[in-house]
User: Fold Carbamoyl phosphate synthase small chain from Halalkalibacter suaedae.
Amino acid sequence: MKGFIVLESGEMFEGIIHSNQTEVHGEIVFFTGMTGYQEVLSDPSFKGQMVVFTYPLIGNYGINESDFESVIPQVDALIVSELSSEGYHYESGSSLLSYCEGHGVPVVSGVDTRAIVKRIREHGDMRAIITTDPSTLSFDKYTSLDQIDVVPTVSCDEPQTFGTGDHHIVLVDFGYKKSIVDSLVKNGCKVTLVPYQTTEQEIKQLNPDGVLYSNGPGNPKQLESLLPTIKKVAEQFPTMGICLGHQLLALAFGGDTEKLTFGHRGANQPVIDMETKQVYMTSQNHSYVVKEESLAGTGFEARYMNINDQSIEGLIHTKHPIFTVQFHPEAHPGPSDSDQLFQVFIEMLQHKGRENVYA
Ligand SMILES: NC(=O)CC[C@H](N)C(=O)O
Assistant:
C-alpha cells in the first residue's frame, strides 16, 4: 500500500508501507552503516526512533539467529530505499520483511532516502509520522522522545546472570546490548544484569568487582532521579559507562549534556584517544553528547574526541577508577578496533586505581 512519511518540518515523502498500522509516530534518524540492520533493529537504544538507512539496498542477507542485540525488535519503523525480498545468505532464517511483519514493525520501502537524510542534516533529528492518509495527521497528540522516560520500557525486571568468570561485573540495564554481555563474558567475567533503578545498597550486596552502566534510549536527563545513586556507586567501585551510561556518569558528577543536530549513527565514526593519539573507527548510535565546558569541577577529563565534529567521545576520572565511552567498544554492528577497552576495564578492576588504567 502507498504510504507517506511526514516530517515535523513539513516535507512529505512517499513509499510503499508494509504494515497493518495506519499511523506511526517517532523520532526520525539516519544510520550510515552499509550492513548491520539486524543489530540496529534489535538495539534497545533505538526505542522510539524510526531509522532511515543511507545504504540503498537493505535486507539482502536476511535475518539470522546470532546477530540480535535483544530478543525483540526495538525500532519504531525502518525506512529504506530498496528492500531485498529474500535473504541471500546461508545463515538467513527469514527475510527482513517477514521478520518485521511477524513482529509488527512497520517498514517503508521505495523511499527517496537521500532526500530525507539531507532534510535531517539541515533540520536536525525531528519527529515524523508514517501514515496511509496524510490529510488527517496531527503531531499535537504525540509527545516527543526527548520528553519521555523510555528506559523503563526496555530495562529488565529481574536480575539475571551470565558467564562464570572470575571478575564479577554488575551491568546496570538501561537497555543493554547483548554484545556488551558477550564481550564481558569473553574477557573472563561473570555478569549480573540488574534493573536500571537498582539501589546502591542492592548493588553493594552483590559484591561486584566493578560496575558497568549500559547504553540505552532517550534523553539522559529523563533519568535525573538516579544520578545521586550513580555517583555514590561510581565512587565505590571501578566503573565503566557506555553511551547512555557515559552520559549519566557525566551528569552524576555535575557535567551537562546537549543534543546534537543529527546524531552519530553508523559503523565508521573516527575517534581519537587524545593521550595515545591512536584513532579508532567506531560503531555509534547516539543523539546526545557531554558538553566539554561542563566538565570543570567534575573530576572528569575528556579522553576521546570525535574527529568529524570534535565532540567528546569518552572520559576518564582524575580521582576514581572510572572511564566512559560514547561509542560502542562491543561493536555489533561495526569494527571491533576498540574492543580491548573491555580488557582495560578488567585491568582497572584488578588494580583498583586510576594510575593503572591504560598502563
Ligand atoms: N546508544 C545509546 O546508549 C544512546 C544514548 C542516548 N539515548 C542518546 O541518544 O544519546
